[in-house]
Specification:
Layout: E1 7-12, E2 18-22, H1 25-31, H2 34-45, E3 59-62, E4 77-82, E5 89-94, H3 98-105, E6 109-113, E7 120-125, E8 128-133, H4 142-153, E9 159-162, H5 165-168, E10 176-178, E11 182-184, H6 189-195, E12 198-204, H7 214-230, H8 232-241, H9 245-250, H10 274-280, E13 299-302, E14 309-312, H11 316-322, H12 331-344, H13 348-363, H14 369-372, H15 382-394, H16 398-402, H17 406-413, E15 423-424, E16 427-428, H18 438-446, H19 483-500, H20 512-523, H21 529-549, H22 579-590, H23 600-605, H24 609-615
Parallel strand pairs: 1-6, 7-12
Antiparallel strand pairs: 1-2, 3-4, 3-6, 4-5, 7-8, 9-10, 9-12, 10-11, 13-14, 15-16
Helix pairs in contact: 1-2, 2-19, 2-21, 7-8, 7-20, 11-13, 12-15, 18-19, 18-22, 19-21, 19-22, 20-21
Length: 618
Amino acid sequence: MKGYTRVLLRVDLTTGKITKESIPEEYLKDYIGGSGLATRYLYDEIPSDADPLGPDNKICISVGPLNGGAYPTSGRFNLSCLSPLTGIWLDASSSGKLAYHLKKAGYDAIIMEGVSKEPVYLSIYNGEVELRDASKIWGMKIAPAMEAVFAQCGNNRASISMIGPAGEHLLPMANVMNNKRRTVGRGGAGAVMGSKKLKAIVVYGDRDFEVAEPEEWKAIIKESIKKLQAHPATGQGLPAYGTSVVLARQHESGDVPAKNWQIGDWDGYMKISGPAMAQTILVKHPNPCHACPIHCARHVEIKEGEYKMAGEGPEYETLASFGSMCLNDDLESIVAANVLCNEYGMDTISVGSAIAFAMEAYEKGIITAEDTEGIDLTWGNEKAILAMIEKIGNREGLGDVLGQGVRKAAQQLGKGAEEFSVHVKGMELPYHDPRAFFETGVTYATSPRGACHLHGHIGSWHAQPIPEGGLMAAIPPHETRGKGKMTKLVQDISTVVNSAVVCQFTNFALSVTHMGEALTAATGEPWDGKKVLEAGERIFNLQRAFNNRRGITSADDNLPGRVLASVKGGPVEGKIPDMGTMLNEYYIERGWETDGRPSRKKLQELGLDFVIGDLYQD
């Protein structure tokens, strides 16, 4: 098979031993790469009772057959492990150029296991791989630590993925920063790296790799770029305003939550939106991800004042997190919050949710000024937001409580705090409201990593068919019937995208048939739309089985009470998703038992017979 190196790099951090293994060809045929390949390895290698911050947890970084060249948005790589935030499966992807360099260095995947006695970083320079001392950069924030590593490796073209102080402190919402401004954002992968004393991974590769059909491959790349540039979302909205275009458009549908999911309308939306950013602080030279024609990244500059800076601007989720969720309409302070989280290495969605949760607890008297050490956690107080980010990043006082995530924070605070703790399986909800698009509720409830919009978010699909020639007709956002089937299909598509590994935004313009053509040209294996969807279904079901072994059942596939209650004001007031009906349809479409396990029949259909004995002992 072409398109792969078929080499896995295994790094034992306990002993320092580094080995290379051949990846079985059937793994690549059945699981593609990226998230899928990681699922196959980690299902076998992580014990079902492993501690996420213990030595039995493993980290898998993996790429797919579309990475390593010029295929649009192919700068992404996947990182998978057991999540310390949720206790279940975690996969997350990031852009930059690590995927490009890893493939060009000669590897499809890295598995890092065990625990180092001292801080180290992994250096990969083509075939030269070694663990290096990281004691001098341990404790540093992201920017200075990356500069130090670049200086040491002497190659400013290398790609670096790194944890900040939050990961070193084992914060369950710590992320992994990639080349300073991109991030493996959700679920606490940074804490897993921290638990292993692994500060960073540095990769550089310049070797060529082969695709099966070079001329067809070039033609597909050109066609993909043309389609992405022609689509209104990927050719106009995202290039003009980045992901912050959502604030300007989706708040009119009630999709953007405010005041910890309590209200459906807020007069501050447009003050922190994409157009507001474009008119005030946006610099007209975005720094795009590798091989990406969409250019949604924002480069901003605040020329004066206390928030003076120049660098990466906040994405939509960050704007909602420190903006509408906290009723803060000061755009520059949100930029400062984004920079601060990036330097500590923290997920802005979870951090912002935790602060909004704390503001409500403060308003209700559950948290007092004594608990906050004088920080005035009133709604909209941008100074309090920034001060609390510092406390969370350093695990100080109330920050240590909030940094565990809203599920554990609510359990610790008590006094009714669990009633407004908004999460699914321990992961805070991203900022798309299930009351605006009912199918979003099914996605959040059944995502393999907890509440997630990157494992099948379909709120943006309500006005158009899924791009597979009539595979699914458009369904109105507040319709119930058909949403289980729609969710299943889009989850399967998204799973393939995470395994290929490319950007979820390609789903706007490129169909699964196109994905099959790209995979065929890269690998030489015959792929069509049906086979693509089957691979996505296989991977998704194996991730479900991974979680079933961790104790997840249908009882955990639910939404928090806050988003199952009517919101005050706005276009979705009185709109409540019927989760029971939609989930029943979803389980039927998935071929799952009522307790949430994939059925024996479904596992056999997907070639997952080896899972049956783990889920069924009778």
